[in-house]
Amino acid sequence: MTDHASIDGRRVALAGDESVLAAARRLGIELPALCHLDGEPPDGGCRLCVVELAGAAEPVAACHTALRPGMEVSTDTPQLRELRRALLALLIEERAPALRADPAGSEVERLMHALGVPGRGAASTPDRSHPLLQFDAGRCVLCRRCVQVCAGVQGAFVWNVVGRGGEAQLEFGAERFADSACVGCGACVDVCPSAAITDRDRADAPAPEQHTRSTCGYCGVGCQVEIGVASGRVVCIDGARTATVNRGHLCAKGRYAHAWQRSHERLERPLLRRGERFEPVSWDDALGFAADRLDRVHRAHGPDALGVLTSSRSTNEAAYLLQKLFRVRFGTNHVDCCARVCHASTAHALRSVTGTGAASACYDDIELARAIVVAGANPTEAHPVLGARIAQRVRAGARLFVIDPRRIELAGLAQHHLALRPGTNVALFDALAKLLIEEDRFDHAYVAERCGGLAALTAHLHGLSLDDAVRITGVSLPALRAFALDLASHGPALFVTGLGLSELTQGVASVKALCNLALLTGALGREGAGLLPLRGQNNVQGNADMGAAPDLLTGYQPVADPAVRAHFAQHWGVEPPSAPGDTLPEMLDAAAAGRLRALWVQGEDLAQSDPNQTHVLAALERLELLVVQELFMTETARRAHVVLPAAGVLEQSGTFTNAERRVQRVRPALPPPGEARPDWEVIQAAAQRLGLDWRYPDPAAVLAEITRVAPASFGGLALERLEGDGLQWPCPDASHPGTRRLHTQGFLCGRARLSVVPFAASPEASVPGYSLTLLTGRVRDQYNVGTMTRRTALSALAPCDWLELASEDASALGIRDGARVRVASRWGGIEVLARTSDRVTEGICFLSFHHPETHTNRLTGPQRDPESNCPEYKLTAVRVDVC
Amino acid sequence: MTSRWEAGFPLVQVREKLRRGMALPLAVAETARATGQPAAPLLAAARSHADLVAAPGATRVCRGTSCELRGAARIAEALSGNGPVRSVHCLGYCHRSPAVLSANGGVFVDADPARIALDFGRPPPLPSAPRVGSLASEPIVTRRIGRGDFSQLSKARGDGAYQTLLKALSLGREGVLREVERSGERGRGGAGFPTAVKWRAAAAAPGDRKVVIANGDEGDPGSFVDRVLLERDPHGVLEGLALCALAVGAELGVVFVRSEYPRAVQRMGEAAREAERAGLLGPRLGGDGPPFAVRVVEGFGSYVCGEETALIAALEGERGEVRPRPPFPSERGLFGRPTVVNNVETLVNVPWIVERGGDAFAAIGTKHSNGTKVLCLDAGFGQPGIVEVPFGLSLRDVIQDWGATSCSDSELAGVLVGGPMGSFLTPDRCDVTLCWAVLAQRGVRLGHGGLVAVPRDTDLAALATQLLRFVATESCGRCVPCRAGSTRALELASRGVLENAAALRSVLWLMRNASLCPFGREAPGPVETLLALAEREVQA
């Protein structure tokens, strides 16, 4: 028995269950295979990869013929050449009149050229109804690669083959492509061999001259992208095929939402406010003015009069320098970032339960999970690439448990969906924990070995009544019981969480109560299980990591700890102030009260995104100095005294950290427009204007300092080590491979703590006169305040914010679809368009906040979690009337 | 995958809803919700199955070769005024062609194009069973259908049905496998693959919840023995299936019966229910064996679903399309479970093999071909019907002696053996011994054993065109050469077989050499023969 075969006379060693096609490609022998996709089962339809086997009467297809010992394969004989030519000619004649042989054309057209199939190049009319993709049926060769990826990667099932035999056609399930179920991920475009499905953004653009690998600048998934640039503009963005995070997949935002970069509205020069107007000035004048004013405030009112917000959109290096600047130069700990208004509760809870305030799991745990709990997160809209992976895992057999007041897309795939009343997470999780304990379905060994607080928790739960839980949450007892027992049977589960837990007055308590479930089922520190909070912004994890927090320095080192301060003093030359500063909402309160007088805001639009907008605007109005580093004239920038034009994600260098603690490279694909400058440079320039002798030559030097000030977490990071897939912290030294999964060997805090957290109703629950509950959040085709996405083709998919109402409420209120309605809370009122949606249940309405003219955050109020200070975006009592 | 298994067969659910008057999109949406699968691909799949998109209440006119030769086109024309008409391949009444199936299940045989529209108003009498004979020392496959209707459980048991199964429970898995191995039986559906090899592979495959499927999607127009077996000896089929299940350790059995055989669907369903009520199937096979549930599934009107991977795809709710192998169904079949798919005739042999021993079976026939083969003779023969012959006889002798037809140029242009994917034999080529080795050596494809007599004065070019129409209509559409090639070949043939002979030959060459499955690879054979004969006629 030999372990070799031969292909075209060349010896080839057998390698597992390899197809002849794969083995040939390994030898560098290219066989045409239009229907084949690596990683998918062979389709076997196109037959172009026919080869001859010695001793076989007829040719076979290389894609689904296994290479066997002793096999003698010929890939190039006169008969095979004629077969391939005739096959391709038949195929093109059958259904692709628009194609013609072209050595520089699509894969099929190049093949036509190579095999001598001229084609007709007939005129055809593509369907251009969709803003992102177009489909030209006259170019389709029915290879079905799109069918495979749309089902197997995105799970949107847009493309299907309909009809038998010669009548078989590719269809997208609608009259116009715009009305199909397409979510615009573009995976089909990447695999289409005949350019039948193409990207509209690059339809008329020149071919890219250079590609830059970088990290996507939208959500916290951290997809790796290849940015194509030609003639000084971005012409295309593709997913990086080899990236472990996204494996070549992207969402519509990551792939298509880049036109903001060349928007004529970009800020290109520093601006100084002169009365009601802004005047372009030199960088020198702008920074000089800002430094002057900061110094004046500092001198006159002391460190507590200054505050800073780093940007979760910008790099780790920028965030690090900015928090350092304010701590070192002004001695203030009023340092925060937008993590405060999203996952602060999660981080706080996880830190107190496990010792580490970040995801315990990694994305690859999704594919390893037997059960997935999605609680208060809507990944298919907000984190589409992970949402698709979760959905695929569920289709492959994992159990899915969804906890969400809304019928999110994943609820349709779930075995259990608990549609609890908003703000009642704690009551729900406590009830589930009670069932696990009282039905004796928890992981005794795990709890005994790794957790503390079981007795107290048991006692607490014993005192709770399930009937009360049913009354509070609105979830039936059988549903609760089925969920708990099924979770016990199929766990340990991967808990994917979002802002539906965090952004509540019981945000920390919600996450702690969820942690109880994770600990009781033995989920933390295990493969295919654990906690995976989905971070909202590309670098919100990194900003928190860098010390953009009033109480924590770089690497989560408490500022209140003298040893920590002494350690920082060694590197900074100055000891940071000891008293924890104000959180973001507290800074705004202080500004409104006149205590905080100067605020530096790096890339964050507080005026649109922070709750209780009326209060926020009043606070900003009172500031003596508001410095804003921005891409565009946002609602916040309009209120600034100094506006500094910033480099965007496509123009920056440094690192971002994603939701699985993975630090990845960000590389500039092109220079910023006009005089706009990367954030880290601007901060260094400001520091120099403020008299500090900062001389970081590049972001690498900043990262090097980060590794020194926080060695336990980041000691092993270095830009050259971050090539490719980056590193997951903790990564304490240069030889450490990074940490995929936390708590595998135990918890940083010793034993994880089971928490006793009593339920407390939100002050927004049952407010007389306000009968509906408003949830705010994002939709798939816009991103946060829309600064970037509103300036791209995606805006056509979500041109305005809609108030989504349950049909029962709409009819009770006499609201027709598309009607303009008045929405009022105790904190403010707006007018907005309304439509009914089966995603929300009776009594609940939903509104996104992507468009500034909506003023969604006039409705949200001042309620916050007492421990984390995270605002309550996910629950506001409102009333709705027809205008 | 467990959940999909438990959710049942999606297209069956879709059809049930359609029959209750629901529109297809809604039927699919509800089924998708119930089975937890995405709706869009299910809708697309449903739309690739002829039955699920056909107008409700359509009359089905058989366009199998025998019916075509005897006026099917004129019948379809004559019936076009009587509501929607569909062409199907085939109704399994080749012995009394042409045949028509009315929407309410009435079968019209020996249909006369001049009278059919008038006759159609009245319910037709139940067609009599075909003549069944045996040239073997004792009949095996036809041992019951040769003697009457054994669809009732009591009558079948009175004739020994299930006795072998009960004995086999003590014989055990290995005992059954050993006998089937010794018998050397090869699949009777057309491919001739050794039965025991499939069984052994599935038995050895890791995984539980294995599946055995009786393939009652008798496709080849010209053969009808499976229809008669399903209707008149359903317990023989079930016993064979149960023995297979015992041998491979399967807990689910499916009998997949083509929808063109409504009576077989009904009889098979009743037989399975009766056997389950009697405790022979169900929770305990044979009363104290392992669990074995049987579901009878009606096909969806796609010829290609007679191919085992396409059959499995249809059961899973996908397009009725061939899938590349490997993986073979015996490793990864229905819903990913190890699955054995056997033809009905193959399975009916099994109780006899286990009862009498593999050696006894092997003693019948020739060295390379054990047992018997059933041949079906269409209405074009002097004596049509079903005949079971031991391997080793000459085809000519069967045609002449049992079919009462002179195998000569004066009477026949030839015989289409094994359906449109079989072989067209001129009278001089009928001198062939029925034996796998000889047939292979002579390039004769016996297929499922259907024989259609093609009379001397037949327009062979027109027959070739008809065969191409069959291929183009029933091609599943997956692979380029079969899908585009058959369409192109039909188009060429319609414009003139002789005028376009060269172009036609090159398309047929492409289909034969490059198609994914035997359908496209073998369909060119008879067409090429007919083309050559037609050319010779012109020259002569």
Number of helices of chain A: 28
**Overall radius of gyration of chain B:** 22 Å
Strand order in the largest sheet of chain A:
14-13-27-26-25-15-16
Span between termini of chain A: 83 Å
pLDDT averaged over residues of chain B? 94
Instruction: Tell me the span between the first and last alpha carbons of chain B.
Output: 63 Å
State the secondary-structure class of chain B.
alpha/beta
**Portion of residues in helices of chain B?**
40-55%
Give the radius of gyration of chain A.
29 Å
Sheet of most strands of chain A: 7 strands, mixed
CATH topology of the largest domain in chain A: Rossmann fold
What is CATH's topology name of the largest domain in chain B? Rossmann fold
How confident overall, as mean pLDDT of chain A? 96
Shape of chain B: globular
Helix content of chain A: 25-40%
CATH architecture of the largest domain in chain A: 3-Layer(aba) Sandwich
Give the SSE map.
The complex is a heterodimer of chains A (883) and B (540).
Chain A: E1 4-7, E2 10-13, H1 20-26, E3 50-53, E4 60-61, E5 72-74, H2 78-95, H3 107-115, E6 133-135, H4 145-154, E7 160-162, E8 169-171, H5 187-191, E9 197-199, E10 210-215, E11 224-230, E12 233-239, H6 252-256, E13 271-274, E14 277-280, H7 283-301, E15 306-309, H8 316-330, E16 335-336, H9 344-354, H10 364-368, E17 371-375, H11 379-382, H12 384-395, E18 399-403, E19 416-418, H13 425-438, H14 444-450, E20 451-452, H15 454-462, H16 466-473, H17 477-490, E21 494-497, H18 499-502, H19 507-520, E22 530-533, H20 540-545, E23 552-553, E24 557-558, H21 562-572, H22 584-592, E25 598-602, H23 606-609, H24 613-622, E26 625-630, E27 642-645, E28 654-657, E29 662-666, H25 679-689, H26 699-709, H27 711-714, E30 727-728, E31 752-753, E32 772-777, E33 802-805, H28 807-813, E34 820-825, E35 829-836, E36 844-848, E37 876-882
Parallel strand pairs in A: 1-5, 15-16, 15-25, 17-18, 17-21, 18-19, 20-31, 21-22, 25-26, 26-27, 32-36, 33-35
Antiparallel strand pairs in A: 1-2, 3-4, 3-5, 6-9, 7-8, 10-11, 11-12, 13-14, 13-27, 23-24, 28-29, 29-30, 32-37, 33-36, 34-35, 34-37
Chain B: H1 2-7, H2 10-19, H3 24-35, H4 39-46, H5 50-53, E1 59-62, H6 65-69, H7 72-79, E2 85-88, E3 100-101, E4 107-108, H8 116-119, E5 132-134, H9 153-158, H10 163-183, H11 195-204, E6 210-216, H12 225-232, H13 234-248, E7 250-257, H14 262-277, E8 293-298, H15 308-315, E9 339-343, H16 344-356, H17 358-362, E10 372-377, E11 385-390, H18 395-402, E12 412-417, E13 423-425, H19 436-441, E14 450-455, H20 460-474, H21 480-494, H22 501-514, H23 518-522, H24 524-539
Parallel strand pairs in B: 1-2, 5-11, 6-7, 6-9, 7-8, 10-14
Antiparallel strand pairs in B: 1-3, 3-4, 10-11, 12-13, 12-14
